[in-house]
């Protein structure tokens, strides 16, 4: 494989869509617990892309600045973690600009990337983020079985590399899935990464490497720490399982996945590192680390 | 008038430093996370703040002018601390310290940083300031990284004080856990007693006041401990006079060697536990030359 984009959606555990229906003890936070993960990235000399939710910045401004200090790329994950298709376009445009400013004020650096909550991006919202100054988005996933996700219309975008699409100066990065027959299997992070044993991931990633040159991994802070989460007593077993499965050993699993991907010859890079380079009159994508 | 900033002003040492500075007629600003401070002196200004909130830190330095920054705030090394995550130690002891140092450095305000002799890790040699630090465990590592962040600041006046375990007249917990099996009844004595390095909070406060008065001539790194080592036989004797230490379990000197071998074997792959056990069975010894020259 050529490139792997490691991405983190910086949100709290209680921002998870399926936990919102329960009362949450918000005194327990997981974002401050990601230092072990940052150290892991330093150990492998990997730079990742962190999509930060603007409403967590005030409580975690030191952590966000620490991420930036370690030269990772910072993008925006929205102002809050509400699904985009529940927001009207005007409200969304105001919010997304406000979120960009909040994060930029924290890291004193331009924020160019965006990822929607639960990959709930819609075309009109995508056009809006392009209009307010974002350079790329990473919310496109071909997985209709998850009802939270949206099947984003990327009509007008051209594919410039595996997982990378371009429309004018604006880029869209796809969340990869593994195509098996007529089904798309999500293998690129979140609960799927926690749920599947490493040997299964090994097989699936080897199959994926035969289909695509680039890969993208997405994870969340609650998946990077063993911190005990104070669930409401009302939480159902299904939601409890969904949020808890594989958490304890996930950081070790991520280490193994990174080593596996490196053994496949991939180079880790951040989203938005792309720059067009003309070579022999053919357009290609160049990346700078 | 510029004020002396003391972070962690509600702590065991912080309170004494504030009192000592006020006695010397300094104007003092104290910061801690508690809602209020016990100090009612009109020359003392208290700010309740969580210093991991960097917007707040920026605002404090913007709104005040400080002549000195005495940074004492942090998470201490306690046995229960084994439940504190590395992220927490790093956030408070390293990142928060780095932020305060950067804010102080913007105005070249002299910095006093309370570090720890734990940064040296295991060693049988007598420790001096040239001894290479080999921090073991999250607490020592987080403090050492904070020290490094001061050293990276160009032309910054500073004193890094590596404190021996601190006790006060009211709180000798850290001292007693080295010779009590169960306080206040049952303690143990090995041979003629073991010698430990400690630092009285009164002596620490006195050093800080001295540094505030003459920071231009007191700089760099210094290991700080009491004038003499504390022998457990003398400590037990003093405790008995107070009606404590009614039962003393005496052990021959060779038990120390046996304990060391046992610890080496039992904690072969657990350096933090080994380090904690070594603090009791093989206490470090500190060379006082630099400290004495400063005082």
Automatic annotation (TrEMBL), chain A:
Gene Ontology MF annotations: hydrolase activity, acting on carbon-nitrogen (but not peptide) bonds
CDD domains: CE4_PuuE_HpPgdA_like_2
Cross-referenced PROSITE patterns: NODB
Gene3D superfamilies to which the protein is assigned, alphabetical: Glycoside hydrolase/deacetylase
Superkingdom, taxonomy of origin: Bacteria
One GO process term, biological-process aspect: carbohydrate metabolic process
Organism (species): Acetobacterium bakii
Protein name, UniProt field: NodB homology domain-containing protein
UniProt domain NodB homology: residue ranges: 16-269
UniProtKB/TrEMBL annotation, chain B:
Pfam families assigned: Epimerase
Annotated organism of origin: Acetobacterium bakii
Name of the featured protein: NAD-dependent epimerase/dehydratase domain-containing protein
Entry-linked CDD domains: SDR_e
NAD-dependent epimerase/dehydratase domain span: 4-214
Domain of life: Bacteria
Gene3D superfamilies registered for this protein in UniProt: NAD(P)-binding Rossmann-like Domain (3.40.50.720)
Cited InterPro entries: Epimerase_deHydtase, Lipid_A_modif_metabolic_enz, NAD(P)-bd_dom_sf
